[in-house]
């Protein structure tokens, strides 16, 4: 008997440089039934970005209308630009048994918990040490020393919210961390409440409940 299931929302959070983006990419490459949530934003489109693929680009008036219409699962303003997760596409994916991956911070995770607690599986990724985190940030060669120091200062604040997450991955080794994230995803998919038709299946086994 085929037991279908409702999709889940898999949240990954971490301080910058801890490995969240690398783990996210690996999960998306290995799992066809997992897709990245596409946020709406008011920030200008950057060269090479595609509307509807990288972000849904809207102006502030439209963004405010979406807030009023309760069209966001979560939203926030960062450096003067608004970002939000549209509810409709996520609901459609979940109803079809498709899982959705979210790259949000602890504040976004709190909002997602409030709006869709039953759907959520949350993971916080920690670096093995502050020294290693700083080393990784410098190794990326993307930011100036001033920006790296700013990211390091912010990291302590972000990591203080680790206990609000379901699972913690300490990213000593990226391959191992990806395997751990996959194990968490697999367990979430098998959760009893998420599997449609399971009660009927068990009854056919002669179990009364």
Summarize this structure briefly.
It contains 8 helices and 9 strands.
Note down, in words, how this protein is organized.
The chain is an alpha/beta fold and 209 residues long. The protein has a domain at 9-37 and 100-204: 3-Layer(aba) Sandwich (Rossmann fold), CATH 3.40.50.300. It is built from eight helices and nine strands. The protein has helices spanning 20-30, 60-68, 87-95, 106-116, 130-140, 145-159, 174-189, 198-204; strands at residues 9-13, 34-36, 40-41, 56-57, 72-78, 81-86, 99-103, 120-126, 167-170. A five-stranded parallel β-sheet has the order 2-7-1-8-9, sandwiched between helices. A hairpin with a 2-residue loop joins strand 5 and strand 6. Helix 1 crosses helix 7 and helix 5 (130-140) packs antiparallel against helix 6 (145-159). The longest helix is centred in the C-terminal third of the chain and has 16 residues, at 174-189. It is globular, with a radius of gyration of 19 Å.
Radius of gyration: 19 Å
Overall structural class, as computed from helix and strand content, comes to alpha/beta
For the biggest sheet, the summary is:
5 strands, parallel
What is the CATH first-level class name of the domain at 9-37 and 100-204?
Answer: Alpha Beta
CATH superfamily of the domain at 9-37 and 100-204: P-loop containing nucleotide triphosphate hydrolases
Beta-strand fraction estimate: 15-25%
Instruction: Note the gap between the termini.
Output: 18 Å
Across the major sheet, the strand order is 2-7-1-8-9
The DSSP helix count reads 8
The count of DSSP E runs of length 2 or more, i.e. the number of strands, is 9
Q: Characterize the quaternary organization of these chains.
A: single chain
Poorly predicted sequence stretches spanning 5 or more consecutive residues: none
Following the backbone from N to C, one meets helices and strands in this order, namely EHEEEHEEHEHEHHEHH
> Percent helix among the residues?
40-55%
What's the architecture of the domain at 9-37 and 100-204 in CATH terms? 3-Layer(aba) Sandwich
């Amino acid at each position: 008997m085929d037991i279908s299931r409702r999709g889940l929302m898999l949240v990954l959070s971490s301080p910058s440089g801890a490995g969240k983006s690398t783990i996210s990419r690996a999960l998306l490459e290995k799992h066809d039934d997992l897709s990245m949530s596409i946020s709406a934003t008011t920030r200008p489109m950057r060269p090479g970005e595609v509307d509807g693929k990288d972000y849904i680009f809207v102006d502030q008036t439209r963004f405010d209308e979406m807030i009023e219409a309760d069209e966001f699962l979560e939203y926030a303003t960062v450096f003067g630009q608004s970002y939000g997760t549209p509810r409709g596409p996520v609901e459609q994916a979940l109803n079809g048994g498709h899982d959705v991956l979210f790259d949000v911070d602890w504040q976004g995770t709190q909002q997602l918990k409030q709006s869709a607690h039953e759907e959520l599986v949350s993971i916080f990724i920690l670096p093995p040490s502050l020294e290693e985190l700083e080393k990784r940030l410098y190794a990326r060669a993307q930011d100036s020393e001033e920006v790296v120091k700013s990211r390091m200062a912010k990291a302590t604040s972000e990591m203080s919210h680790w206990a609000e997450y379901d699972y913690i991955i300490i990213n000593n080794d990226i391959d191992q961390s990806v395997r751990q994230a996959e194990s968490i995803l697999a367990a979430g998919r098998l959760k009893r409440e998420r599997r449609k038709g399971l009660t009927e299946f068990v009854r056919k086994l002669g179990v009364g409940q």
